[in-house]
Amino acid sequence: MVETKVFKLAQIKDAATLINAGELVAFPTETVYGLGADATNEQAVKKVYAAKGRPSDNPLIVHVASIETVEKYAAFISDAAYRLMKQFWPGSLTMIFKLKPNAFSKTVTGGLETAAFRFPDNQATLNLINISGKPLVGPSANTSGKPSPTTANHVYHDLNGKIAGILDDGPTRVGVESTVLDMSTDEPVILRPGAVTKEQIENVIGLIETNHHKVGKDETPKAPGMKYKHYAPKAQVYLVDQGDWEAAIKWANKQSFAVGVLAETQLIHEFNLGANITSYSLGTGVQEASANLFAGLRQFDDMETIKVILAQTFAANGLGTAYMNRVNKSAGGEHFEVEQD
Ligand code: TXA
Ligand code: MG
């Protein structure tokens, strides 16, 4: 096994050299770390699926450092899309466009006639794209099914020895992935809620649809990634709604196994937690909770003894939609139920 190199920002040129050599380098964004490869090099892109253990029908986001690069590959960009780019790029809005014929290999698109484009808000990664001169594919740099990485350490944990390098720019700011908006259809549709909210998008282009329901194994979902298990630690996660915490902690205190509590600081201080309970603070408010969620799930995942994780819910509006979408998937939709006796 060849140890993965961790690059400091001063070493971006070395990271770019690896990209140009067809190697994999994980890169920081404002949302989560991505697993980068030259989007125009099919052999390099194939390595991304192998390193992550990702199903090959799940297409990749193409990361760019200019709108011109999108224009080079997309067959059509509407006025509404240009308005969104102006408002949110660089930033956490990914947009899907129809491609010109043979713009990218099938390995990038998963055989679709579209591709998802994203202009991340991270200067180091924009430099990496500019120095390498290549658009970069970039799924989240985690092992498929695990929570997305919000630090270089998380990437190293999952992918050491499987990728050439990691460009380290500290913890990510937003912590949940970008919003995926399909602009290739007549009506724009949100396929994955993310850091840019539906409300923010509607302020720019008017009312839009959301379509991020669960899809069965044999169905073809709009965003292929949605049919796979996601953000799932080894322990069973239960969502605990606001009024149910007292009962949930009472239950946890009676168990003989270890329980993790993932909640806001204030909530953790409100209860007497028994010796079998470990808490991880999500901070205060939905913004901090979103930034800390994946790190918390990962911390509990590294503690082999934890059998159950109790996780806080937030109202599903604004950024809360993205937070709830992720935590719901990690829980497989399971809520802590208060027993009636
Ligand atoms: O914040 C983010 O978006 C991060 C950072 C690294 O940029 N990237 C990320 O990529 O989350 P990934 O591959 O983990 O998630 C991309 C999602 C998947 O659900 C995928 O199925 C969907 O976008 N997707 C990609 N291309 C698509 C396309 N052409 N049509 C429909 N869905 C697409
Ligand atoms: Mg992902």
TrEMBL record:
Its main location: cytoplasm. Gene3D superfamilies: DHBP synthase, Threonylcarbamoyl-AMP synthase, C-terminal domain. ATP binds at residues 54, 58, 63, 114, 118, 140, 148, 192, 231. Keywords: ATP-binding, Cytoplasm, Nucleotide-binding, Nucleotidyltransferase, Transferase, tRNA processing. One of its GO terms (biological process) is regulation of translational fidelity. It catalyses: L-threonine + hydrogencarbonate + ATP = L-threonylcarbamoyladenylate + diphosphate + H2O. The keyword tRNA processing applies. Its EC number is 2.7.7.87. Coiled coil: none annotated. InterPro entries: DHBP_synth_RibB-like_a/b_dom, Sua5-like_dom, Sua5/YwlC_C, Sua5_C, T(6)A37_SUA5, TC-AMP_synthase_SUA5. GO terms for cellular component: cytoplasm. Pfam families: Sua5_C, Sua5_yciO_yrdC. L-threonine binds at residues 31, 178. One of its GO terms (molecular function) is L-threonylcarbamoyladenylate synthase. It is found in: Cytoplasm. Belongs to the SUA5 family. Required for the formation of a threonylcarbamoyl group on adenosine at position 37 (t(6)A37) in tRNAs that read codons beginning with adenine. This is Threonylcarbamoyl-AMP synthase. The lineage of its organism: Bacteria, Bacillati, Bacillota, Bacilli, Lactobacillales.
